[in-house]
Amino acid sequence: MKKHKSSVDYYLKHENKKKPSLKGRKKLRRLINLLLVIFSAAVLGFGFSMFVLQSVHMEGPSMQPGISDGDVLLLNKSAYLFHHIQRYDIVAIQKMKSKEYFDIKRVVGIPGDELSCVGGYLIVNGRQVRIGDEPVMLSTAGRLEGGVTLGDDEYFVLGDNTDYSLDSRFVNYGNIQKSEIKGKVFYRLKPGERKGKLK
């Protein structure tokens, strides 16, 4: 005698067909996890480049011979959140009129310093300034001819290649405000043969 399927049996079988298999659910879970990882990595990468590290390109000869035109450098945007800007730091400056372009210069004067040019040499607080073993020489004194005293949150910057640098010596550039210094340039990424920490 044939058994008739009850409506309950049919309902249960119909429901079972709709449910994804265990294997299918694992695949779906893996896909969701992968998408979450990709999204998290993108958010972290964006935050890292916005607030911590960023690559910048050197344009022009103003920082030669240490940094050359076309060098790719690493900028630490968080360097001055916990530390003071130091004399001789190489910094990225974003002038108030520019939203994208960074100037790369060396800090030679910090708040309270008195700077001048005597006999073609840079003098800070009565002492001749040397970067490495070499004294800083200036063929053009500019504003330093009459002496410059830095106020609170003011910095004086020069390009290492002073003959080819638009910097704080000139009226149209002037002293740099702390808010214009966007971080410390500390490492060269390219070219590969010169890769390494900057001095």
Describe the protein:
This protein is an alpha+beta fold and 199 residues long. The protein contains two helices and 14 strands; from the N terminus they run H-H-E-E-E-E-E-E-E-E-E-E-E-E-E-E. The protein has helices at 7-18, 22-51, and strands at 53-57, 72-76, 90-93, 103-109, 114-118, 121-124, 127-128, 130-131, 134-135, 148-149, 154-158, 176-177, 181-190, 196-197. Strand 13 and strand 14 form a beta hairpin. The radius of gyration is 30 Å and the shape is elongated. Mean pLDDT is 84; it is low at 46-50.
Summarize the structure.
With 199 residues, the protein is an alpha+beta fold. It is built from 2 helices and 14 strands. Strands 1, 2, 3, 4, 11, 12, 13 and 14 form an 8-stranded antiparallel beta sheet that branches. Strands 7-6-5-10 form a 4-stranded antiparallel beta sheet, with no helix packed on it.
Rg on CA atoms, Å: 30 Å
Fraction of residues in H or I helices: 10-25%
How much beta, percentage-wise? 25-35%
Poorly predicted parts: 46-50
Task: Lay out the secondary structure.
Blueprint: H1 7-18, H2 22-51, E1 53-57, E2 72-76, E3 90-93, E4 103-109, E5 114-118, E6 121-124, E7 127-128, E8 130-131, E9 134-135, E10 148-149, E11 154-158, E12 176-177, E13 181-190, E14 196-197
Antiparallel strand pairs: 1-2, 2-13, 3-4, 3-13, 4-11, 5-6, 5-10, 6-7, 8-9, 11-12, 13-14
Structure characteristics:
single chain, four-stranded antiparallel β-sheet, 14 strands, alpha+beta, 2 helices
